[in-house]
Amino acid sequence: MPDTGAPAAATMETSAAALPSRGIHHLALTTEDMQMTTDFFVNVVGMPLVHAMKVPPGVGTGPGNRGNPPYEEIRHYFFDMGNDSLLAYFEIPKGEKKQTDRDDIGGMQHCAFTVTPDQMEAMRQRFDAAGVEYDGPVDILPGLVSMYFKDPNGARLEACCQPAEGDNPSVIGSVLQTKTQARAELVSTGASDEWITQVTAHLPD
Fold first, then answer.
1. Residues 82 and 114 grouped into a single domain
2. What is the pTM of this model?
């Protein structure tokens, strides 16, 4: 997680129209057991199933593949993770792939969900009732606390909360730095002053 030291009230001045996206549409992960995974996210985490399908023929090993797992007609389910964004899973045939190392280059180290204080407490109670192990809540940045857990496939997940913000968390504001704060770290990359000035131009003074 980034170490910002930024004031919680800081906000980006970039207009939404100028940004390249409005956020996550879906994050796609993999499982060997879709029923197990569905049960965990629906009945333990509390994310509703919104779409259950088989990948159309030809999209796995056929000419229609555009980055899907290379298996024909596998299950592909979608769960509502809140704020109009989706968590998706592909079901890989059993024994076809090894367990991932989340610290591999290019791998998914963890996925963090934004939750309100009430949502975090409800999640904690569901985990306790289901016997799911978790770490936290722990302080990770000023004004930001998290709870860490794993799905049944070993994927590392995080529930991230800003208690003082109640039902209206500011995700960008919780990590936003000033130009000076960001520059203090960026100089350690060995980059030129011109490049550092360019990439921090949007940050508050």
1. no
2. 0.82
